[in-house]
Specification:
Structural class: alpha/beta
Order of helices and strands: HHEHEHEHEHEHHEEE
Distance between the termini: 23 Å
Largest sheet: 8 strands, mixed
Radius of gyration: 17 Å
Number of helices: 8
Low-confidence stretches: none
Number of strands: 8
Strand content: 15-25%
């Protein structure tokens, strides 16, 4: 029999987010930062997908015909807008509770989404393949970053792309994303992030290269308190996003 894949699921992290599941779609609740973060990451994702696949980002459904996986989808905050843009979306999360919340909200919104309570390893094992993988705010919560990235990369079709968003492991990130956001401003529940599990860009990019992906773009994301919104920046000291492409079969 073939050797079973090692799991990258951190059960404590799954339990943490499962306990917060009812808050996913409350824009003023415990996931308020993600709701605020959504516009900048959605625009980044849409525009780069359109560029990669020769689509008009201003079209009503520019992602029509593309198969997208949102791994670690939570309550579906990215899945629903991707579906509205025309994509065939699979939302996967290790938390059954998160998936039930996502399914219920999609049904209320009358959106056809394929939500699965499963892992990256199980999807890869079953032979799933996607044009685009969204790996957003997940790598800092898994038990083995290189293995998780490699497992996700395995599911990217040749010519496809993967987006990764995470938090840098810097003292600035410790001060702003953990102490500031969790303990001072209470934007996030305490314990949402562990400093030791944050991922530096060079670590993430090495994992991507080792998995057969080529880094095509990288950008920081910062909060503008005057405008009360997140925006792209050259500053990658805290939040950042990376786009990688699979140029050929690995």
């Amino acid at each position: 029999m073939p050797e079973a894949r090692r799991s990258t699921v951190d059960t404590q992290e799954v339990e943490h987010f499962s306990a917060l599941a009812a808050e996913w779609w409350n824009p003023n609740g415990k996931f308020r930062p993600l709701h605020k973060f959504n516009p900048v990451r959605l625009a980044y994702i849409r525009d780069h997908i359109a560029e990669r696949f020769g689509r008009d980002p201003r079209a009503a459904r520019p992602l029509e015909g593309l198969r997208i996986l949102d791994i670690g989808c939570g309550g579906g905050l990215l899945c629903e807008p991707m579906a509205r843009l025309g994509a065939d979306v699979v939302g996967a999360d290790a938390s059954e509770t998160n998936i039930e919340v996502a399914r219920l909200h999609a049904a209320e919104a009358k959106l056809d989404l394929d939500y699965r309570a499963t892992t990256a390893e199980a999807l890869a094992e079953s032979g799933e393949r996607f044009d685009v993988i969204l790996n957003m705010e997940v790598v800092e919560h898994v038990s083995d970053v290189p293995l998780f990235v490699a497992t996700c990369a395995e599911m990217v079709k040749p010519g496809g792309i993967m987006f990764v968003a995470t938090i840098n492991r810097t003292l600035k990130a410790l001060a702003l994303a953990i102490v500031g956001a969790e303990y001072v401003l209470r934007w996030l529940p305490r314990g949402t992030h562990s400093f030791g599990k944050l991922v530096r860009p060079e670590e993430l990019e090495k994992a991507l290269r080792d998995a057969g992906m080529a880094v095509a773009d990288r950008v920081g994301v910062v909060y503008n308190p005057l405008a009360d919104r997140w925006q792209k920046s050259r500053d990658m000291d805290v939040n950042y996003m990376v786009l990688a492409e699979k140029l050929s079969a690995v």
